[in-house]
C-alpha cells in the first residue's frame, strides 16, 4: 500500500468514524438542541410571534362570533406560542425526515403543537401567570350576559378533559 492509498483510507475512515460519533452524540438530542436550529429559531421567532399577535388582536377586537380555534389561540402569549410552534415543527420535521424520509403529516404536527400549548397553559395556571381569557372575551362584547359567558368560556379552556376532547377535534378539523 503506497502513501496515497493509505491517506485515502485514513480520510475515509475518519469520515465514517466522525459520522458514527455524531450519531452517538445526537441519538438522544432533539433537533432544536443543535446550533443551526437554534439560530434559525432565533431568526424566525420574532416574525411568527408578530403574526400570532396580529391574529390575536383581530380576535380580541372582532365583534363576529369567535371561531372554535380562537380560544386556544388566545390562551397563551404570542411569544410562547411561537416558540412552541417553531420547536415542535423542527423536531417533527427532523424526526420524520430521519425515520421515513418524508415530511410529517399536518394533523400530528398540529396535535403536538396543541398538546405542548396545553401543557404550557396548565403550567401558567399553576404558577398564576395565565392570560386572563375572561377579561379578553369580555372586551369583545358588553352585553348583560357577556361576563357570565366569558367566564364560562375561560373555564372551558382551563378544563383538562375538554382539552383532550373538544380542542383535539378542532385541530383535526382546522387542518
Question: What report would you give on this structure?
Answer:
With 175 residues, this protein is mainly α. It has one domain (30-174). The protein has helices spanning 3-26, 35-61, 70-74, 78-100, 106-126, 133-140, 146-157, 160-174. It is elongated and about 90 Å long. The model has no long low-confidence stretch (mean pLDDT 76).
Termini gap: 61 Å
Can you give the helix content as a percent range?
A: over 70%
Count of β-strands: 0
Q: Helix count, per DSSP?
A: 8
Task: Choose one word for the global shape.
Answer: elongated
Tell me the β content. Answer: under 5%
Count of discrete structural domains: 1
Cα gyration radius (Å): 23 Å
Broad structural category = mainly alpha
The whole-number mean of residue pLDDT values reads 76
Order of helices and strands: HHHHHHHH
How many strands, which pairing sense, and closed or not: the largest β-sheet?
none
Annotation keywords:
175 residues; mainly alpha; 8 helices; 0% strand
In short:
This protein has 175 residues and is mainly α.
Write the layout of secondary structure elements.
Blueprint: H1 3-26, H2 35-61, H3 70-74, H4 78-100, H5 106-126, H6 133-140, H7 146-157, H8 160-174
